Amino acid sequence: MKKKYNLLMFSFLLFTSINVWSQITITRWNFNGTAADAVAGGATSPTPTEGNGSASLLNGVTATFASGTASGGSSDPVTTTPDNFGWNTSTYAALGTENKLRGIQFNISTVNYQGIKFIFDQRLSNTANNTYVVQYSTNGTNWIDAETFTFTPAETGTGDTWYNLRTVDLTAVTALNNNPNAGFRIVSAFDPTTNDYRAARSTSTYGPGGTVRFDMVTLTAESSLSLPSFDNQNSLLISPNPSSNGVMKLNQVLSFEVFDYNGKKLFNVQNSDEINTSNLPTGMYIIKTDTGLVQKIIVK
To answer: In CATH, what class is 23-222?
Structure first.
């Protein structure tokens, strides 16, 4: 039996699906390998596992690779060590020195993408600093503070703890869109209440040798600039949409192409008023006709 959606429900489903399915991974580092000395790129400049970009250590910070599953683990779906490692950094600044200078940096081109978000997992040892600032650059030279992650240390529940999916929404920074010189940093910063470094656990003392472990460092985009324009999407009517029965009906006989939401062409149909979606995974897709009409469809 076909489900009927009123206009309000359809609008809600479309809005929800856009939020879920339009996130595109530009670049990701998961730092995984069959052994700590087998992670691609090595500990000083690990290479991404998806996409392109470079990673580096800032101002004397050192690094190794350590478990990505210890202390509850990162958001990496891999659950074995090996293969699940995190980028384990140390040698941070002494008390009262080098505020927002030591940490890690990623240079990632966003050419052909817009609506940028920076996401990462972070594990702090007991003596590591409790406060970190994410910065961005649009030219690789000038760095701007984007967001501060801090907390009040407690005796339990803070040290040796993962803080997963820390997210910096940079969609409002349009200068990062379609930019070949985009850069992102995570740097150790003074605690905003003490104006100095502060241990992640209240019963510990901050030390430069405390470890800060990173995993699943990811840059995403809301959309690709190569996707077809949606300016004329309302001229083409498709129903039911969303659909779960495998067949959608067009309001006219047309020839058309079907794209995934990354802009990859999947197949084309000649002279038909039907779309067979039975072989498509759940998600959002784009229909573009030979007459220039464009519409989004949702497969449930």
So the answer is: mainly beta
